[in-house]
Design a protein that fits this description.
Order of helices and strands of chain B: HHHHEHHEEEEHH
Oligomer: heterodimer
Radius of gyration of chain B: 19 Å
Largest sheet of chain B: 5 strands, mixed
Number of domains of chain B: 2
Helix content of chain B: 40-55%
Structural class of chain B: alpha+beta
Largest interface: A-B, 35 and 24 residues
Distance between the termini of chain B: 39 Å
CATH superfamily of the largest domain in chain B: NADH-quinone oxidoreductase subunit E
CATH architecture of the largest domain in chain A: 3-Layer(aba) Sandwich
Number of helices of chain B: 8
Largest sheet of chain A: 7 strands, mixed
Radius of gyration of chain A: 29 Å
CATH class of the largest domain in chain A: Alpha Beta
Number of strands of chain A: 31
CATH class of the largest domain in chain B: Mainly Alpha
Structural class of chain A: alpha/beta
Distance between the termini of chain A: 47 Å
CATH architecture of the largest domain in chain B: Orthogonal Bundle
Strand order of the largest sheet of chain A: 16-15-28-27-26-17-18
Number of strands of chain B: 5
Strand content of chain B: 5-15%
Shape of chain A: globular
Strand order of the largest sheet of chain B: 2-3-1-4-5
Strand content of chain A: 15-25%
Chain lengths: ~725, ~200
């Protein structure tokens, strides 16, 4: 709770230096302004102070009118002490040093000091503070408390109770930040244990964070246990490419092998938290099934081949075939990869059959909000959710699909009282703090959206029939709850959040339009967020059959994923390229996908691991993973962030952009891009929204790309849509 | 804490029950009392302690895992939070199932000097159980407690909300005989405490 609302300042004297600090700021924070340090365990800047560990003791006094200083008789905990005028703080006196020694001696009474085999050893605040401030020996010669070691709270988090110093950081995290309150202190005194109810599974979707904030080795990472020592690890900054939020992380690796992930601070995106999907979801870097060399199918099976042979084979089947060839990818490639991919197909193969949408939501150019209503699809950022009067979460399990958006939304509610409306067909984590919960029957999204628009008084054409009672009939949501939600949405400035999973429902795209229209009329902001690491980039860079880079309409549209697979199943599509995707597992209709892969004449599978689709492939190409190549990703809030290479690529695997660039060079001899930096320069030249984005500008929190230039919003067509619902 | 889990072993932690799977046991009176108590406080969190007393009465004197889950469910708190509160306080019986009567022997200084352990040994022998154990017939649970703040009556026993002291073998025999036929004092105590929280016009 470092944020202080008041702008008043007070004068505080710290170790003889007078400084001005915001009134009410905690002394433990004020001290940092002078570059001094107070040792801490339980205090965490993002959580409420509790004063449990007593490590941050300082001497405090007040200047008297006669100029003398009257000290308090006892030391005070700096983490719970707000700064006030004329305060005098001493952090470096003999008494304080003695007190710190005493506190540490107490904390170490029951601490096992098994540092040599502890995962935390080397990066442990208790170790560091003991070294800097602690006593050299202990007077405690009795038996230490013993408890079972390595108790698995969940498949990710292991509890070593002996090491716990009962600071309560993990308990407060689940209570204040992630909100599931799954950890609590059970029992008391020496037998106190931070654990789940009846030691059941710790099922939080953000459980990995408690490992990072634990100031000792009590909560350790089950996947990382005993796999490395911190001083053997090398680390580099990166971003998560599993979730769409662009979570900033540290990639820890050892001898070229990925070991673990930790959260990296980016106030605009994830603060310092990670979702479990991020923290434990990058195992594929070490998969034994990684593809290491290109393979060509021969009569006897797959045979290893050189890149040039493979390129020749691919060109023989793709070049000059126009609309008879196509590519399906998924939006978890970097901007540079995706841009070169569409360039290869459009310029090199003269084919418009390009799509990045595998699991549904195949909206055409005309159906998209930008082109139909003249409204942007993503109007909000993650950080702004902290300070909004109200938010509507519509048809998404936000903690799963948008973990960092969820945490920020919850922070807004927890700290600033955002009123949250949760409208989902099934219970989600948002319900725990929602002001109104609207549980509708699946498949009635558009009618509920219209009902909400009606109840909030948005002047949209064709809304008349969606009064709360009629909406209750249609959706099963009680009319009084719809009215209550409508009341909340009458005040301007709310955020309406949904995700692309809404588009895969039967009424989804209509609901999306209505919500966007409602937001426009009532002065709210609307976002339909993507689900993959680079969905926003793929859309912007034209990885769509009917849209060119920059959101320009393609006058000669190609086929979308479903049409391509249907054509392939009928043998009409001669060659298909799958980039980093597996239609057999991710396409909703597996039968069609199987038939398509069987019947297509020539199938290129480009992936980082041996997937099921490889069985059908004519050519298998190994590609690198994001942390093995340079590239940028556009997160769902349209933030471009750089993923610099951390690991080296296995075997002969190549970065995707390089594969596409090398093929394009064989078709059209020209100066190729020498690196992703050159590709990004080309992107920023050709795609207006990316103007100004270059690798030099991507240090720090990343760059939000511009919104596309749209004309006046045109909500006329909404009336017609509404009348059809 | 369960057995040490070997590295690499499959983690099979049981899952906490979901709200809809709970076997709710509160009587109508208990629900009415809980609703009345909720209105005393600005938020439901504040009602955890009285809620646990109601549960201790409804579940026959012991706060089982199910009882804790029910309180959490009815107050919209997490199970862990309510369990943390319940296991903190010693008058909530969470450690093991208690009998109908809980006999608490004070063994602090004054009682100790006046022969508290002789009283305790007599009780142990007579009931055939040690401290923290319950007789097989489910009638008596014996406990050792810290100072009960009635040193003038040492050595002292507490049963329910009644103090008995000074006690010797004869008084203990008479007390046990009386308790054998009286209604359970553990639930009585819980009921008394719930009633202390309730106002006169609320369902008692």
């Amino acid at each position: 709770m470092a944020a202080v609302v008041s702008t008043d300042t007070v004068k505080v004297t710290i170790n003889g230096v007078e400084i001005e600090v915001p009134k009410g700021e905690l002394i433990v924070e004020s001290v940092k302004r002078l570059g001094l340090e107070i040792p801490i365990f339980c205090y965490h800047p993002r959580m409420k102070p509790v004063g449990m560990c007593r490590m941050c003791l300082v001497e405090v006094g007040f200047k008297q009118p006669d100029g003398s200083v009257r000290m308090m008789p006892k030391p005070q905990a700096g983490c719970t002490l707000p700064a006030s005028d004329n305060m005098v703080v001493l952090t470096d006196t003999e008494a304080i040093h003695r007190d710190r020694k005493g506190v540490l001696e107490f904390l170490l009474i029951n601490h096992p000091l098994d540092c040599p085999i502890c995962d935390r050893g080397g990066e442990c605040p208790l170790q560091n503070n003991t070294l800097s401030y602690g006593p050299s020996t202990s007077r405690f010669i009795e038996m230490k408390r013993h408890a079972h070691k390595a108790f698995p709270l969940s498949q990710y988090v292991t509890l070593d109770l002996e090491r716990c110093i009962q600071c309560g950081r993990c308990v407060r995290f689940t209570e204040e930040i992630s909100g599931d309150s799954q950890l609590a202190f059970r029992f008391r005194g020496a037998s106190m244990q931070p654990a789940t109810y009846q030691l059941t599974d710790f099922e939080s979707k953000f459980s990995g964070n408690v490992i990072e904030i634990c100031p000792v080795g009590a909560l350790t990472n089950a996947k990382y246990r005993f796999r490395a020592r911190p001083w053997d690890l090398e680390t580099k900054p990166g971003i998560c490419t599993v979730t769409p939020c662009g979570t900033n992380v540290w990639f820890d690796y050892r001898a070229g092998k990925f070991i673990r992930l930790n959260g990296r601070t980016n106030e605009e995106v994830n603060e310092e938290w990670t979702a479990d999907r991020t923290k434990f979801g990058h195992d594929f870097y070490n998969s034994p099934n990684r593809l290491k060399a290109p393979n060509l199918r021969t009569e006897t099976g797959f045979k290893g081949a050189g890149w040039s042979d493979v390129y020749a084979e691919i060109l023989a089947h793709f070049e000059g075939k126009g609309s008879e060839v196509g590519v399906i990818t998924e939006a978890n490639l970097s901007n540079e990869d995706l841009f070169m991919l569409q360039k290869l197909f459009r310029k090199g193969f003269a084919s418009q059959n390009i799509d990045h949408r595998l699991s549904g939501g195949w909206q055409s150019f005309e159906e998209r909000l930008e082109n139909k209503l003249g409204l942007n699809t993503v109007q909000t950022t993650i950080a702004e959710l902290e300070n909004v009067p109200a938010s509507l979460v519509f048809a998404t399990s936000l903690a799963d699909e948008q973990p960092m958006t969820f945490l920020r939304l919850r922070k807004g509610w927890f700290q600033n009282g955002t009123k949250v409306i949760s409208a989902t067909s099934h219970p989600t984590e948002v319900d725990q703090f929602a002001h109104v919960i609207l549980r509708y029957k699946p498949g009635t999204e558009a009618r509920l959206a219209a009902g909400l628009a009606h109840a909030s008084g948005a002047a949209l054409e064709g809304l008349e029939k969606f009064n709360p009672e009629a909406t209750e009939q249609a959706t099963g949501v009680p009319a009084n709850l719809i009215r209550e939600a409508g009341e909340i949405l009458r005040e301007a400035g709310a955020r309406i959040l949904t995700t692309h999973s809404l588009l895969t429902t039967s009424e989804g795209s209509v609901a999306c339009e209505i919500l966007a229209g409602l937001a426009h009329k009532a002065g709210h902001k609307f976002s339909c967020l993507g689900l993959k690491a680079n969905t926003a980039g793929a859309k912007e860079l034209g990885l769509l059959p009917d849209t060119l880079p920059g959101g320009i309409k393609n006058s000669n549209p190609g086929k979308d994923t479903r049409q391509m697979l249907e054509d392939a199943a009928r043998g009409k599509l001669k060659a298909l390229w799958l980039v980093n995707c597996d239609p057999l597992t991710d396409f909703p209709d597996r039968d069609l996908a199987e038939k398509a892969l069987e019947n297509v004449e020539f199938l290129v599978v480009q992936h980082h691991q041996a997937i099921e689709a490889c069985e059908y492939a004519s050519v298998v190409l190994p590609m690198t993973l994001p942390a093995e190549q340079d590239g940028t990703f556009t997160s769902s809030e349209r933030r471009v962030q750089r993923m610099a290479p951390v690991l080296s690529a296995p075997g002969e695997a190549k970065a995707s952009w390089r594969i596409f660039a090398e093929l394009l060079l064989r078709i059209q001899p020209s100066t190729p891009p020498f690196g992703p930096k050159d590709v990004m320069e080309e992107i920023s030249r050709e795609v207006p929204t990316f103007a100004g984005v270059n690798y030099g500008a991507l240090d720090g929190p990343g760059v939000l790309i511009a919104q596309p230039e749209l004309g006046e919003p045109n909500l006329n067509s909404l009336g017609g849509t509404l009348s059809k619902v | 804490m369960s057995d040490l889990i070997q590295l690499g072993a499959v983690n099979e932690r049981p899952k906490a029950p979901r709200g809809e799977d709970l076997q709710l046991k509160f009587s109508e009176k208990a629900i009415a009392q809980l609703d009345a108590l909720k209105a005393h406080y600005p938020e439901e969190k504040a009602c955890i302690l009285p809620g646990l007393w109601i549960a201790q009465r409804e579940y026959g004197g012991t706060l089982t895992a199910e009882a804790i889950a029910e309180v959490a469910h009815r107050l919209h708190r997490s199970y862990a939070e309510v369990e943390g509160v319940a296991t903190f306080y010693s008058m909530y019986n969470t450690a093991h199932a208690v009998g109908a009567h809980m006999i608490e022997v004070c063994t602090c200084l004054s009682c100790h000097v006046c022969g508290a352990y002789r009283v305790a040994d007599y009780l142990k022998e007579k009931l055939g159980v040690g401290f923290g154990e319950t007789t097989p017939d489910g009638l008596f649970t014996l406990h050792e407690v810290e100072c009960l703040n009635a040193c003038d009556r040492a050595p002292l026993l507490q049963v329910g909300d009644q103090y008995y002291g000074p006690v010797g073998p004869a008084e203990i025999d008479a007390l046990l005989e009386k308790l054998r036929t009286s209604p359970p004092t553990v639930t009585q105590l819980a009921d008394e405490i719930v009633k202390v929280h309730l106002k006169a016009e609320e369902p008692r």
